[in-house]
Automatic annotation (TrEMBL):
<feature type="domain" description="GST N-terminal">
    <location>
        <begin position="1"/>
        <end position="77"/>
    </location>
</feature>
<protein>
    <submittedName>
        <fullName>Unannotated protein</fullName>
    </submittedName>
</protein>
<dbReference type="InterPro" id="IPR036282">
    <property type="entry name" value="Glutathione-S-Trfase_C_sf"/>
</dbReference>
<dbReference type="Pfam" id="PF13417">
    <property type="entry name" value="GST_N_3"/>
</dbReference>
<dbReference type="InterPro" id="IPR036249">
    <property type="entry name" value="Thioredoxin-like_sf"/>
</dbReference>
<dbReference type="InterPro" id="IPR050983">
    <property type="entry name" value="GST_Omega/HSP26"/>
</dbReference>
<dbReference type="InterPro" id="IPR004045">
    <property type="entry name" value="Glutathione_S-Trfase_N"/>
</dbReference>
<dbReference type="InterPro" id="IPR040079">
    <property type="entry name" value="Glutathione_S-Trfase"/>
</dbReference>
<dbReference type="GO" id="GO:0005737">
    <property type="term" value="C:cytoplasm"/>
</dbReference>
Length: 176
């Protein structure tokens, strides 16, 4: 299994966390986001990462990749067992991607200040799927941008950091 990745990208981070939570071995191909190689467009027409190559089956989009991994490797499930709870987890990630991720990139360009409010409202602790999807932004807000996290988020992140998948991502962000 091969992951086309960018260490700084929170969307890639959620896939790295999912792969580690599921204990799936993978090879990383680092993609320079500032000078995207032309071949990345052959893998994903948008040129974005992450892209997963599972023996020739190529799949872009972080949430879709996470769902695929959860179905392909059912041991250590990320999504809840109940269909309604699974749908809720997917909806939370979908809404998160629409709201916080959009605001995050606007914040990084100096155009928005609503990131703190979005972080305060995060519905954490719903499932490993949701936590893996949200954690990259929370980690980056705290460790790269100096946000003071609300106590509930700090406690949640401390609890998650006990797992190597989250601890590895925290260490990666702190070393950058």
């Amino acid at each position: 299994m091969k992951l086309y990745d960018a260490a700084a990208c929170p969307f890639c981070a959620r896939v790295r966390i999912a792969l580690q939570l599921k204990e799936i071995a993978y090879e990383t191909v680092e993609v320079d986001l500032h000078e995207r190689p032309s071949w990345i467009y052959d893998l994903n027409v948008s040129g974005r990462v992450p892209v997963l190559d599972d023996g020739g089956y190529v799949l872009p989009e972080s949430a879709v990749i996470m769902e695929y991994l959860d179905e392909r490797y059912p041991d250590r499930p990320l999504l809840p067992a109940d269909a309604r709870d699974r749908a809720t987890a997917r909806l939370l990630v979908h809404r998160f991607d629409e709201l916080l991720a959009r605001d995050w990139y606007a914040f990084r360009q100096g155009e928005s200040h609503s990131v703190e409010q979005r972080l305060e409202e995060l519905p954490i602790g719903q499932s490993l799927f949701v936590d893996a999807a949200f954690a990259p932004w929370v980690i980056r807000a705290r460790d790269l941008h100096g946000f003071r996290l609300p106590d509930r988020l700090e406690e949640w992140l401390s609890d998650r950091a006990r797992h190597p998948a989250f601890a590895t991502e925290i260490a990666l962000v702190r070393s950058s």
